Amino acid sequence: MGPALALADTPRRSAGVDRRVVVISGLAVLVAIAAAFVAQLLTALIALITNLAFHGRFAFTPSSPADNHLGLAVIGVPVLGALVVGVMARYGSRAIRGHGIPEAMEQVLFNQSRIPARMTFLKPLSSAIAIGTGGPFGAEGPIIATGGAIGSLVGQLLKTTADERKTLLAAGAAAGMAATFGSPVAATLLAIELLLFEYRARSLVPVALASAAAAAVRIAAVGSAPAFTIPDLAQPTGAAIASYVVIGALAGVASVYVTRAVYGVEDAFEKLPIHWMWWPALGAVVTGVVGYFAPRTLGVGYDNIESILGGTLAGRALLILVAMKFISWVVALGSGTSGGTLAPLLTLGGGLGALLAGAALAVIPGLPLDVRVAALVGMAAMFAGASRAMLASVVFAFEATRQPVGLLPLLGGCGAAYLISCLMMKNSIMTEKLARRGARVPADYSADFLDTVLVKDHAQRSLVVLVGGDTLASARAFLASNAPDASHQGFPVVDASGALLGVVTRRNLLDTRRPDAATIRDLLERPALVAYEDESLREAADRMLLAGVGRLAVLDRSGSTHPTGILTRSDVLAAHGSRLDASQRAVRSLGAS
Fold first, then answer.
1. Residue 537 main-chain phi, psi, to 5 deg
2. How many structural domains compose the chain?
3. Minimal CA–CA distance to 207: which of 39, 27, 38?
4. Quick one: 195 and 292 in the same domain?
5. What is the CATH number of the domain that holds 161?
6. What region does 563 belong to: left with phi over 0, alpha with psi -120 to 50, or beta?
7. pLDDT one-digit tens code per residue, 156-213
8. Sequence-separated (6 or more) residues with CB below 8 Å from residue 520
9. For the packed helices 184-191 and 390-401, what is the interaxial angle rounded to 10 degrees?
């Protein structure tokens, strides 16, 4: 082996999962335990504020704002809470506004997963105030955001890489959801679909372990009962499943208009001639008025979801709840206060599914429909259409109810909703805000094409090598000869035995500061950078970028030091040609048919 090659950057095979993943997994579990305890604390804090604001008692037991006896004074309670949130956003952090997940996505995509430390207490506190004073939100969004903030903070304190911080952020967020609903699998899928933007073992394993740990903490704290207890469901027939798919599709249509309504209201607030600090209070006026006429719309409303799924809330009462909840939530969220989207979407979707099934049965009494299954499908399909987290929606509905017979209707309904949403809406309720800021949020995850093709299939084999002991005069004469082989921009340099010494460029060879008497070997200022034939083009391209070079000498793994080819940036780009040709051929064939 030549002395230059002895120092060469000869890469090792990519391990994928290594000891560092074990360390991050351990940290993720610790983050999850912390997030799970924060979830319990936030739930207790919401209960305390609800009791104080609506019932005048100091208690941590869960209670519903709907049972208040405040009369017209109930209108002022959400307004007071929103004023406090507005002040916290103005003088604490503007990032507490919104429902949490889009803000976490923004930090992952554009800030290397760095969330300010103050968000770990400002977000849950502001959300507890907003929800406890009647805000029509769920606690899950703020808990997810807080868990993500804890993970990000741990990553920043321990000086992890951006990828590791992203994993810890996603682990904390998933733990927050798992601790709220006891749905660890759905929480893991939600992290994959909305936060990780990848499916790799080194990120999936820590998130999965974190979700499991948070669910275990929840079991220890509140028991193992499902989040929503409903009577056992009967196995649906084929005709019923087809009907549930239609209900899911209609819920998908509704999710599009719900999303448009949220951002339409947000646009309307943007046009107001007053500071945004006051917007939540204005939105809360609507929340209070609606809450006076429909008290069930106040607060998180998990009891409403359970009543809808159980079939005990139906008919005119259900229609009023869905309509009024929609108005209250859309205006409140559009005003920029602090709260979540999952529970309101579940309420709207579950109510819509139950209403559609009830209407169908009223027209055709013999239809094989179960209103409870329709509510379950509508609930999950609404979230799938609005968020584009289809798999998370299906599994969440199952884990939250423990009703396995609902899985097939859920898969069909959520698939239909997802399709309708993609056809009718460019961005989801999670990504629309980011898209409006000029950001491009990845929506489709596929295998990296460059990671699927090998260096040996795209390296140039017609090597033109230079001998290190030759003079620059001879090399310059060769370049000036206009021979076909002299047109290259880079050349491997070998010793007399053919062993690789390094790579030189045409610019190096023609540098007038170097005398003709100098040897080519004198130009080698760095160890050789190489790629192995069995490496992927992704590994080779990353190495080029990190080293700031445009070409790599290629070796095989037999131990030989003789170069077998050379790989350039142009070769990497040209590799995409086969992919593009195949795609274009498919489009042309479909057009011809």
1. -65, -25
2. 3
3. 27
4. no
5. 1.10.3080.10
6. beta
7. 999 889 889 999 999 999 999 999 999 999 999 999 988 888 888 999 999 999 999 9
8. 466, 467, 468, 469, 470, 471, 472, 475, 493, 504, 509
9. 170
Q: For 379-443, what is the HEC assignment?
A: HHHHHHHHHCCHHHHHHHHHHHHCCHHHHHHHHHHHHHHHHHHHHHCCCCCCCHHHHHCCCCCCC
The residue range of the domain holding 262 is 238-436
Strands 530-532 and 551-555: parallel
Answer positive or negative: Cα dihedral of 249, 251, 254, 255.
negative
**Cα(579)–Cα(259) distance, integer angstroms:** 35
The tokens 């209103």 sit on which residue?
371
Token pair belonging to 37: 């305890």
Contacts with 422 (C-beta within 8 Å, 6 or more apart), sequence order: 388
Q: In what order do the strands lie in the sheet with 530-532?
A: 530-532, 551-555, 565-568
Location of structure tokens 């209960």: 47
Look up tokens 């579990």; give the residue: 29
Dist CA 539 CA 554 (whole Å): 13
pLDDT one-digit tens code per residue, 231-262: 888 899 999 999 999 999 999 999 999 999 99
Give the Cβ contact number of residue 440 at 10 Å.
9
Residue 446 predicted with pLDDT over 80:
no
Secondary-structure percent of the chain, ordered helix, strand, coil, rounded to 5? 65, 5, 30
Same domain, 252 and 200: no
Q: Name the residue among 134, 136, 132, 140 with its Cα closest to residue 44.
A: 132
Could you tell me the two tokens for 476? 């310059």
- Let me know whether 267 and 396 are in one domain: yes
**Three state DSSP letters for 534-589:** CCEHHHHHHHHHHHCCCEEEEECCCCCCCCCEEEEHHHHHHCHHHHHHHHHHHHHH
Domain boundary at 402, 436, 470, which?
A: 436
In angstroms, rounded to a whole number, what is the distance separating the alpha carbons of residues 146 and 45?
14
Angle at 177 between CA 176 and CA 181, to 5 degrees: 125
When pLDDT is averaged across residues 90-103 and rounded to a whole number, the result is 78
